[in-house]
Write a structure and sequence with these properties.
By secondary structure, the protein is of the alpha/beta class. It is 40% helix and 12% strand. The chain has 14 helices and ten strands. The protein has a six-stranded mixed β-sheet with strand order 2-1-5-6-10-9. Strands 3-4 form a two-stranded antiparallel ribbon. The protein has a two-stranded parallel sheet with strand order 7-8.
Length: 345
């Protein structure tokens, strides 16, 4: 008789659980962002869902009022927060003393007490008020919608508020500006957890740009370029087709027949960042894709993504992602059995 073979299939990997806290006065659009990004579109190459999304209230199951002319029926009470790997707090227009005085209500404090130590915390827009009132943001960088930033800083002086970014990833606590920035942050979390290939597919299905870096400026009182004026689209397309080559600012400006000064100003108006910052972002994204999807050497990846040397690429990936190229490849290489495994970040 041959050696015993265990024919039982391996148990399925547990999905990362995202619990969304629905508060009275919530914005339905923002409540739906986590379900759309994590619950529907984030899947591994075999089509398996990578996250489980649960919505809960701070009260027993029942209706929660929104800022629209309808309520939503939430079927989970605050106990669901104890099961979360990630808790997301979307914006609400009825935060009461949280917004007015920077303090939690007893009901909200009791609900947040269910959150286990080490749980990743995320806020969208004014949901950051809840995290700040609970003390989670003390001494940490954070952002919120630009129109609330000054009030937010006055109310929570211990928080290092940055009023000019889309989102901030501070490890186990992440905050975003309003509405679309919440989408950017959720796609960023998918990228952080499962790599660029999965995140890019989520972005494609959501029909949003695959990557808007958190450091991009919120669009505050910026003039919209006149529609009859030339844009910088052609220059960006030209640059993307030759990222592996040295690209000078004047070369990009020439694609639009502009002076360097005019091109730089127009580029900032349209992209929210400088041409140099944009080029670095695109090269980091190219490097991530090559590290995940090819067996090219580190030197070749550095060349093909335009960094020139492995050392230069290493410095940029460390600054952007906090990991070396080799460590990134070990984590997210498509033929790595651990890649996309639903691990906790």
């Amino acid at each position: 008789m041959g050696p015993h073979t265990d024919t039982h299939p391996a148990p399925p990997l547990r999905r990362h659980r995202v619990v969304v806290l629905a508060l009275d006065g919530l914005l339905p659009f923002e409540l739906g962002i986590p379900q759309r990004i994590f619950g529907r579109f984030a899947r591994n190459p075999e089509g398996r869902k990578l996250y489980e999304v649960v919505t809960c209230s701070i009260r027993p199951p029942g209706p929660v009022e929104t800022d629209a002319d309808f309520a939503v029926l939430v079927e989970n009470g605050p106990e669901a927060l104890a099961t979360a790997d990630t808790v997301i707090v979307p914006a609400s227009y009825e935060l009461g003393p949280v917004y007015e005085e920077g303090v939690l209500t007893d009901e909200l404090a009791a609900a947040l007490a269910y959150i286990r130590p080490g749980t990743r915390l995320v806020s969208i827009c004014t949901g950051g008020y809840v995290l700040a009132a609970a003390g989670y943001l003390d001494g940490r960088p954070a952002t919120t919608h630009w129109s609330s930033a000054e009030h937010f800083q006055r109310l929570f002086p211990k928080v290092r508020v940055d009023t000019d970014v889309l989102f901030i990833d501070d490890g186990d606590v992440l905050t975003s500006a309003g509405v679309a920035a919440g989408i950017d942050l959720c796609v960023h979390i998918v990228r952080r957890d499962h790599g660029t290939a999965v995140a890019n597919e989520v972005a494609r299905r959501t029909v949003v740009p695959p990557h808007r870096d958190g450091g991009q400026a919120q669009y505050i009182q910026r003039p919209v370029p006149e529609p009859q004026l030339a844009t910088t689209t052609a220059a960006r397309a030209w640059a993307l087709s030759r990222l592996h080559e040295p690209i000078q600012l004047r070369d990009m400006a020439e694609q639009e027949s502009m002076s360097v000064r005019t091109f730089t100003r127009r580029f900032r108006e349209e992209a929210g960042i400088s041409p140099g910052q944009w080029l670095t972002q695109q090269r980091v994204e190219r490097a991530r894709h090559l590290l995940e999807s090819t067996g090219l050497s580190i030197d070749q990846v550095a060349h093909d993504s335009g960094f020139g040397t492995a050392q230069s690429m290493r410095q940029h990936l460390l600054a952007t992602l906090g990991v070396t190229p080799s460590a990134y490849r070990r984590t997210f290489r498509s033929d790595n059995p651990r890649a996309g495994s639903g691990r906790r970040a």
